[in-house]
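Read as chain and fold; for instance:
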Amino acid sequence: MNIKYKSLDTENKIYPYQGMTPKINESVFLAPGVKIIGDVEIGKDSSIWYNSVIRGDVHYIKIGEMTNIQDLSMLHVTNGKYPLNIGNGVTIGHSVKLHGCTIEDYSLIGIGAIILDGAVIEQNSIVAAGAVIRPNTVVKSGKLYAGVPAKEIRDLTESELLEFENSAKRYRKYVDLTLNTVNER
């Protein structure tokens, strides 16, 4: 098992599960404590931050390019029914729980949000910090959803819409800064 990726430590654990080994692009950054299990695919220039768990044991998980999964996030699936698909340029905030849902390109999931089975977060949308997206809910493109359970709050502003790509690029720079800081030691 020869897996290449950028990492700060040797404590990351990449686990095969029933013959499926995670496929991680060699440009992906994995911070210390990350655990990745089973049928998982992570695209170019994405980053997985401290102590996040990506558990593709009973269905698949696909993460696109230049997506960042921030500290302490938990990504999982529903056995044979709901995979987890995350698009390109997505920002997943700290301590987010994603379970068997779809997050389309250039969306932002706020700190501590929970998104449940069958939910679809359309492109260019925001789920606010602490929000709970119920099963099979569709968060419409260009909208902000917040609350428990989450509801549509308003249209996104032009500046918010422009921020999606900036957020993805910013996290790509954080990887470079983190790796350079370690190399300075």
About this structure: The mean pLDDT is 92. The first strand starts at residue 6 and ends at 7. The helical segments are 158-184.
